[in-house]
Amino acid sequence: MEIPVTTFSEGQEDPLAVQRAASVVLDDGGRIVGWSERAQALLGYPSEEALGRSTIGFLVDPSDYHVVMEAAAACLRDQGWFGLVPVRHRDGRRMEFGCWSRPIIKGDSSREWFLLGAPAEEVVRWNTDRSVLEGLFRRSPIGLSVHAPDLSILRVNRAISRFSQIPPEQHRGLRTSDFLIQHDTDTVERQLREVLETGQSSIFTEQPCRLRREPSRELIVSISAFRLQDPSGRILGVTQTVEDVTDRYRARRRLALLNEAGARIGTTLDVARTARELADVAAPDLADCVSVDLLEPVIHGEEPGQQTLGTLRRTAVRSPLPSDADVMYPVGHTIDVPPDSVQARCLAERRPILEAQLQRSSAWLDLDPERAERALSLGTHSLMVVPLVARGLVLGLLSLWRWRQLDPFEEDDLRVAEEFASRAAVCIDNARRYTQQYQAALTLQHSLLPHEVPRHLAVEVAHRYLPADAASGVGGDWFDVIPLSGLRVALVVGDVVGHGIHAAATMGRLRTAVHTLANLDLTPDEVLAHLDDLVDRLAEEQEPTSEQSPQIVGATCLYAVYDPVSQRCALARAGHPPPAVVSPAGQVHLPDIPAGPPLGLGGLPFEAAELTLPEGSLLTLYTDGLIHARKRDVEESLADLCGALTAPALSLEETCEAVEGALLRDRATDEVADDVALLIARTRVLAAANVVTWELPVQATAAAGARALTASQLAEWELEEMAFTTELIVSELVTNAYRYGGGPITLRFIRDHHHLICEVSDTSSTSPHLRRARTTDEGGRGLFLVAQLTERWGTRYTREGKTIWTEQLLSSGSAR
Questions:
Q1: Could you say which DSSP state residue 598 is in?
Q2: Which residues have C-beta within 8 Å of that of residue 785, sequence separation ≥ 6?
Q3: Coil, strand, or helix at residue 311?
């Protein structure tokens, strides 16, 4: 006779096991002939009271007799029976017992009945547990395998059998290595040994799983394991559950990729960098090889047209393939797309194309058959091509290949690639539009800056202009060298607040205003006062504009005027960094010039200061981008500037290079760069022999005396051919000074290589002006004649009065 004995964990032992169940033996007439101690414990009857008694009326109430008869009939028919039987306890209680009965044939052919019984609630609970266990092995979709301490298989359920394609009963004695490749086997068995040794269960450990029968297909399984032991603590083995979570893992990975794409793509407004970010996100998680090819106009910030779809430029590539230069086109390569290729169809139809299994007959080979053949021979097996489309414009292509990843691309992968391409396309188009605006602003700015600095006798100059990078935008820095009357020169450096095309346009307006004010020969502080009014008006004009337009609310400026005759330099600044002055002996200092408010605040005064600059002095003007180029203290930057200016140099160009090296060497790594304008001037002094000055008496004979002095000086300078014209000019200017001016009259001649300059000064602030004289007028024609006889003429005002000046062009034979 076979008796079911099953070992469970504590509290779940088989209630019908012999050691736990009440056992009773009945003869063929239903009398009790065997009574166990467990029966006495459960039912309360001692053996002497139970033996020989008939079960009907003693243990079973006569009203339940039919249950006993049905059980007996079923037992005879099926050689065994299990069911619930109502039993009377010794104390009179009615109890439901789960009973298992079986007929026993004795040696004399007589029959007895062997019964095992236990309280029904214990049997029902145990049967539920057995049903759960049976369900795990027969119907559970999650794989279950039981391993001996040596990790050989004791039993598996049908879910594992579907993995291995071997019947469950044939798994006994096999090992994991009989189903999985060795690498994955080592991972699984290492985890099972750890559970066996430590007793600590592992829960939901995800790991790759490749079957020996299908090594090209990678599955992701979730494994949990726990140790088996009997109530005494003896280790019986280890059980593991195995669940195929490949779809869930891939969906989670795709979601993570999309989140990563949102964070990593489009961090800058640079087309090429955005393309590289797209390639870096897609590889190696989604694809092994990735390329981003853009239409040529997109790279330059232009809007692509239908006619440009046939030509692409490789903008980014990620490839682990060996000798990838022979397989993947390098960055910068121009690709002509054949009209019958996959790429051409993708561009024309604006829809993604999936080639799950690449074949040698695939249309993608037409792009470059030789490279495609090499790629196939290396194991490239799957391709996706996705168009980059934003705001209705086709910008290029995203191409993805698989080589290391054994699984081909699926439709879900294509949807992820489309999401990548959609996000990247918008970022690339934003970068393209920004590049377009940046180039327009840069072009405008360059058109507004001086292309060539005019050569001047008063100074020798060198300059640098470095625009801000694309991330910061074009700024409003500018510089100028403006010739003034009397061989003087104005040196200007300014900086408009903000970046972009609005700053560049404002810079152009201010530069034009400075030229106009300089031609009026105003003092530096007066120039800044007028500029302040102009910036204030520009800010008022911008107030009604839309919120998208940046508001230019101010600017800084340094304006200096140097006179090579007096060697004096007048300077004024409006919120601008101070200039640096280097003496001919090499001593450098930052002159204490009143800072003044930035332009645009309105109503605040500006002060000018004067310096004496001996011949050979260096005057350096710059914008704040120079000293703020590095993440250092401004004082340190100014010290570096002074050191660079005093370094031995053969020319001003070398000095500019030294300044760049000292202060701008780390500019490329600055997170936020600014425009830099630098202007260095070396002063010159006009020789005393080329300047002559007289003070004339305020008398009616002043004009005659001036004419005589003029003739004598021109003869000394060997300019006799200019005597008649010059005497007419001097006579008219001195006569006007005598009639309308006041105080002493000063006559000065200045000669340079190309001009003869005549200046007549008096203490009056009244300026003469041209007017049309009538035929009956006796005067009014003098200045008209002066204007006709000179190349230029004008008036400048000083604190003592005014000066009328003229310039005459020297003949080639008279020039020295």
A1: P
A2: 728, 732
A3: strand
The terminus-to-terminus CA distance of the chain in angstroms comes to 139
**What 8-state DSSP symbol labels residue 200?**
P
Main-chain phi, psi angles of 685, to 5 degrees: -125, 135
Q: Give residues with Cβ within 8 angstroms of 265, minimum separation 6.
A: 274, 277, 278, 281, 420, 423, 424, 427
Cis peptide upstream of residue 284 (ω within 30 degrees of 0)? yes
Element (DSSP H or E) covering residue 502? helix 501-519
* Helix orientation angle between 702-716 and 723-740, rounded to the nearest 10 degrees: 150
Distance CA 576, CA 331 (A): 44
Amino acid identity of 680?
Answer: I
Q: How many helices (H) and strands (E) does the chain have?
A: 21, 31
- How far lies 3's CA from each of 107, 688, 771, in Å? 20, 134, 138
- Answer whether 350's CB lies under 8 Å from 389's CB: yes
Residue 568, pLDDT score? 95
Burial, 672: exposed, middle or buried (Cβ in 10 Å; 0-12, 13-18, 19+)? exposed
680: part of which helix (H) or strand (E)? Answer: strand 676-683
Burial class, 58, CB count within 10 angstroms (exposed 0-12 / middle 13-18 / buried 19+): middle
- Locate 668 and state its tokens: 């490329």
C-beta separation of 511 from 477 below 8 A: no
Q: How far, in Å, CA of 443 to CA of 620, rounded?
A: 27
Please give, one letter per residue, the 3-state secondary structure of 696-726.
Answer: ECCCCCHHHHHHHHHHHHHHHCCCHHHHHHH
The tokens of 180 are what?
Answer: 């999985």
Mean pLDDT, residues 706-718 taken together: 93
Residue 43 tokens, joined: 């039912």
Which pLDDT value is given to residue 546? Answer: 46
CB atoms within 10 A of CB 536: 17
Whose tokens are 């091509």? That residue is: 385
Strand locations in 272-427, DSSP E?
289-295, 311-318, 334-336, 353-355, 382-390, 393-402
Query: How confident is the model over 436-488, as pLDDT tens digits?
Result: 877 777 777 677 777 677 788 899 999 988 877 655 556 788 899 999 999 99
Residue 430: half-sphere exposure toward Cβ, Cα within 13 Å: 14
Residue 763: Cβ within 10 Å count: 16
CA–CA separation, 97 and 121 (whole Å): 8
Residue with tokens 């062997």: 114
Q: What is the mean pLDDT of residues 581-596?
A: 92
Cα–Cα dist 478/468, whole Å? 13
Question: What tokens does 510 get?
Answer: 């201010």
Polymer length of the chain: 816
Residues 441, 442, 445, 450: what is their CA dihedral angle, to the nearest 10 degrees?
Answer: -160
The neighbour count for residue 767, using CB atoms within 10 Å, is 12
Distance CA 338, CA 364 (A): 10
CA distance 325 to 212: 35
Q: What is the predicted pLDDT for the residue at 290?
A: 92
Is residue 481 left, alpha or beta, with left meaning phi > 0 and alpha meaning psi from -120 to 50? beta
For 618, the enclosing helix (H) or strand (E) is strand 618-622
Which residues have a Cβ under 8 Å from the Cβ of 784 and sit 6 or more positions away? Answer: 770, 773
Whole-angstrom distance, CA of residue 350 vs CA of residue 525 = 63
* CA 638/CA 653 separation, integer angstroms: 20
SS (H, E, C) 3-34: CCCCCCCCCCCCCCCCCCCEEEEEECCCEEEE
CA distance 260 to 282: 10
Q: How many CB atoms lie within 10 A of CB 11?
A: 7
Residue 114, CB-side half-sphere exposure with 13 Å CA sphere: 13
Q: Which residues contact 376 (CB under 8 A, 6 or more apart)?
A: 358, 360
| Cβ–Cβ under 8 Å, residues 627 and 638 | yes
Taking the C-alpha atoms of residue 816 and residue 814, their distance in angstroms, rounded to an integer, is 6
